[in-house]
Design brief:
- The chain has about 200 residues and is mainly alpha-helical.
- About 55% of the residues lie in helices and about 10% in strands.
- It has one domain.
């Protein structure tokens, strides 16, 4: 996870943002188009079950076509779940997972160990996006309720974030870019609105 941490801290050094993260605005900044499940079903004539079978899960997927990136996501999920799904898919983009041999949603022959690693990295990185490390540690590890409210995540997600920071805190703080990441997460991301 050290490489994941370093990449996300570097991203935050150059793209700081206010909390809670405006995920849709971040997608616009990164040139990622959002495609909700409701529109996909309406436009394609496929059922939700058929779309989920293509995605390999009921939450969402990052896709690339013609050099452009798209996140297809289940807009029928709870808002906090959608936020996390979008951040997980953004993390796949930031970590370059679509360039990994054997990590193609369309090939259906990806190697399970590569897929499992990429998924674990993206879930972890999504937490770092939603709750920047310097902000978290500057608050002396906020409680689950405060963390959930400030970062716009569920309490279950806040609990997982606290566990991840407890496990990886020393590694995070040891990264050279940690000292340059914003503490307050209040500077605007270029082209990203507050909110």
């Amino acid at each position: 996870m050290r490489d994941v941490i370093e990449r996300l801290l570097h991203f935050q050094c150059t793209h700081s943002y206010a909390l809670p993260l405006n995920v849709e605005a971040l997608c616009r900044t990164l040139g990622i188009e959002l495609r909700p499940l409701s529109a996909i079903v309406r436009e394609s004539g496929l059922s939700e079950a058929e779309v989920f079978a293509l995605w390999g899960n009921p939450d969402g997927v990052l896709q690339r076509a013609g050099g452009r990136f798209f996140i297809c996501y289940n807009d029928g999920r709870a808002p906090n779940r959608v936020r996390f799904t979008l951040c997980e898919e953004i993390a796949h983009r930031l970590l370059g997972h679509l360039d990994e041999p054997g990590f193609s949603v369309f090939s259906q022959d990806y190697r399970p160990e590569v897929y499992a690693r990429c998924e674990a990295e993206a879930r972890f990185a999504a937490g770092l996006l939603l709750c920047p490390p310097r902000w978290f540690f500057a608050r002396e590890e906020p409680g689950e309720s405060a963390l959930a409210r400030r970062c716009g995540v569920s309490r279950a997600c806040a609990r997982r974030l606290r566990e991840d920071y407890a496990r990886w805190g020393a590694v995070i703080r040891a990264c050279p870019t940690y000292g340059f990441a914003p503490v307050n997460a209040e500077r605007r991301l270029t082209g990203v609105d507050r909110g």
